[in-house]
Structure formats: structure tokens, C-alpha cells
Amino acid sequence: MPEARQYKYSEIPEYFPRDNKNSLWKPRKKISKMIGTLAEVSMAEGERYYLRLMLNLKRGATSFEDLRTLNGIIHPNYQSVCKALRLLEDPQLYEDTMREAIATKSAFQIRNLFTLICVIL
Asked: Which sign does the torsion angle of CA 38, 39, 44, 50 carry?
């Protein structure tokens, strides 16, 4: 049976279905392709956005504090740890964010997002 700590949060449902009755993730008896998703979060939402970045990046996170910990240093917030990882300097982050917005947002929202990205950069 696979060890849960080797997966990112979005990969967990493929190997561990949620038992809502007992509020637990239980090992899947038969491995099958499942898609785990995280709620859509705008860059304008600040900490929620950076939390989502960390959930999509860090494998084996066990707590919110663990998501903010890098090289033994507990950062005060998710934005701080994202900066320490230099995630905000990666052009791919902004390209992926725009692609996601194009698929789900209105033209007005996409323009606002583009403006926000320009201000950040």
C-alpha cells in the first residue's frame, strides 16, 4: 500500500478515498485513476492563493504549519514561503494562472487578473 506522505494533496484521492462518516482518508483497495481538485482561487485572494500553490507543490504535508516550513524555518505565512521558494519569480506560474482563468473566467475578470500580474511583476 502506498505511503500517503509521498503525494501532493491533489494526488491523495487516487490512493486514499475519503471516508466522510469517520472523517478519514482510507487506503484504496483497488488503485484506479481519480482526479483530486482544489478550489479555484484568484491571485487577488492573497494567502488563500499561496496556500493553494503550496498544496499543489509540497508532497507529504501533514499540517498547515508544515506547509509553511522550509529547511526547518517556519515562515509566518504562505506568501513568505512561496517567496523563499522563488515561486513568484517563475513565469510558468503566471502562464498557468492565466490559462486557468481563460478556461473559467469572464473577459473582465481575465483583464483584472492580467493587470494584477503586471503589478506583481
From this structure: negative
- CA–CA dist 121, 118 (Å, integer): 5
2: left (phi over 0), alpha (psi -120 to 50) or beta: beta
73-74/69-70 β-pairing: antiparallel
pTM for this structure? 0.75
Q: Decide: 59 and 5 in contact? Cβ < 8 Å.
A: yes
Q: Name 76's Cβ contacts closer than 8 Å, sequence gap at least 6.
A: 68
pLDDT, tens digit (0-9, with 9 covering 90-100), for 52-78: 999 989 998 889 999 999 999 999 999
